Amino acid sequence: MQKMVNKKLAALLEEIGIETKKKIYWEESIESIQVVKTHPNKTGKKIEDVRVLLVEDQPSNRKTLEVYLKHKVGKVDIAENGKQAVEKFAKEKYDIILMDLQMPIMGGIEAALRIRKIEEERQVERNTPIIAFTANYYSDDKDISVEIGMDVYLSKPFQSKTIYELIQEYA
After folding, report:
1. For residue 129, what is the DSSP state?
2. For a 10 Å CB count at each end of the chain, is N or C smaller?
3. What's the start-to-end Cα distance of the chain, in Å?
């Protein structure tokens, strides 16, 4: 299932050199949440060694995920908005990024575009998987997220174990 969200977005992405039309391989609704996945590109890294960048502006959501993940993965770094996420990504190497889409200062879509541009400039062999999540799952966010190169789109509310399972699948 491939579809272009809108021609203007596609033209802008091409203009800055970002490939579009990533293929969705799995889409489902589970217990009122929506999950859209592209093909995982696993490293085979042990979950307890995985470095996670968690990007979430809501303090309660951020703390819940941070507390849950700290006992499961190697390291969890926090960014409260997309701008902080891009700055952290430019300085550190992460195995996976968990990114809220709707945030002040810089949203998740713009941050993901900038992260993909950094990876392109670095000529990385494997892009860092980005798991996007949002409470606004009736918008075009799902399609746009996949088009710009995010690997998973997840609607809120979701259980922490869902994120853990996705980290295992993509890291």
Report:
1. P
2. N
3. 24
- Dihedral sign of CA atoms 152, 53, 95, 123 in order: positive
Strands (E), the chain: 26-30, 33-37, 51-55, 75-79, 96-100, 130-134, 152-155
Q: Could you tell me the two tokens for 45?
A: 């890294």
Separation CA 38–CA 158 (nearest Å): 19
Q: How much of the chain is helix, strand and coil, in % rounded to 5?
A: 40, 20, 40
This prediction's pTM: 0.78
Domains of the chain: 38-170 (3.40.50.2300)
Given a contact cutoff of 8 angstroms between Cβ atoms, the answer to whether 107 and 82 are in contact is yes
DSSP-assigned beta bridge partners for residue 79: 55
pLDDT digits (tens, 9 = 90+) for 69-82: 998 999 999 999 99
Q: Quick check: 133 and 97 in contact, CB under 8 A?
A: no
In tens, the pLDDT along 28-67 reads 444 445 566 666 667 778 889 999 999 999 999 899 889 9
Write down the number of H helices and E strands in the chain: 6, 7
